[in-house]
Amino acid sequence: MNDRPVVILTALNLEYEAVRETLSDLRVHRHTAGTRFEIGQLAGGRCRVVLGLVGKGNHPAAVLAERAIAAFRPKAVLFVGVAGGLRPSIALGDVVVATHVYAYHGGTSQDDGLKARPRVWEIAHGPDQIARHLDRTRTWQRRLPADAVPPRVHFGPIAAGEVVQDSSISEQARWVRQHYNDALAIEMEAAGVAQAAHLNNALPVVVVRGVSDRADGTKAATDGIRWQPRAVANAVAFATALAEELTYDTDTDQPGTKGSTAMHGDSVSNIATGNARVGFQAGHIYGTVQMGGADRQQPTDLATEIAALRGHLKEARLVGSIDEATYTAAEVELDAATRSMEEGAPGRSGLMIALKRLRGLVDDVTELAARLAAVIALARELS
Asked: Is 52 helix (H, G, I), strand (E, B) or coil?
């Protein structure tokens, strides 16, 4: 399983619970500012998901998306929930995947009226291609309830504002039609999440919405006949299938090929002929870097690496990345690893067992997991 998780955020507790039901092995992660995320696995264990509830509105969505991105360094952020449909061709229960997110409340007031100053974020090409492939193959529909009628999936812009739109004739409704007339759906959080992802080196973000009302004054009626849970179920089915495909797509990248990065443990061959010189190129590197032939020096001392890992573990406890119980259990495993290392060869089974147990305790803390992976790789090399 790829180390980096997919973050799934929702605005409503109904949406949160629907995603949560698809996850197993749930654990709570407490952010230092009080936010609680839950970390779990999708069925099959191939995709690790961080789940968060942001509440209504673009502003809290942006703040909590930023917290999730900083804490977990995800491969992508998905925002999942319900929205109001803006087109007659979109049926209740259909799924809309945002190709663009419009922040439609931006503008300037002049003597001759209010002029739109739109902001827009576009879906990244890779996730867009994966989402469209899922729609074409219909494999995501296996996640729907057995008696559900499969909805259609639409790709197009979503408008994100700061108010609930429940009218087709209000001033706001006319404003949206005039300036954002290609929008398929309207909601209140996607612009905040898109902005947070954009400010984190254009991290991929995908907004997946189930249409639960028509934004035309009939919301109370459609909510009354339970279109919200049906629309949520459809959006969650598509989004969780997409999360798994995003993980699979990352995991199957071939190291050493053009456009890929070389991680610790991957090998990259550089071959030169004639008078050519060969450099060294890598992406993210965790642990030590070694170059040279068979006569190179031994890697960094394993005891030093374990001691450094212990220091990082203490730092994680101080900033709240891990709780006291996890810290205590991790210290026990580090002590066991140290004893095993001192008693015999580094590769003996006791050392590896302790390190693997430690990995199970800290694998939801990305920095610790990466450092531990380097220690495990070093222990294997010295065995």
From this structure: strand
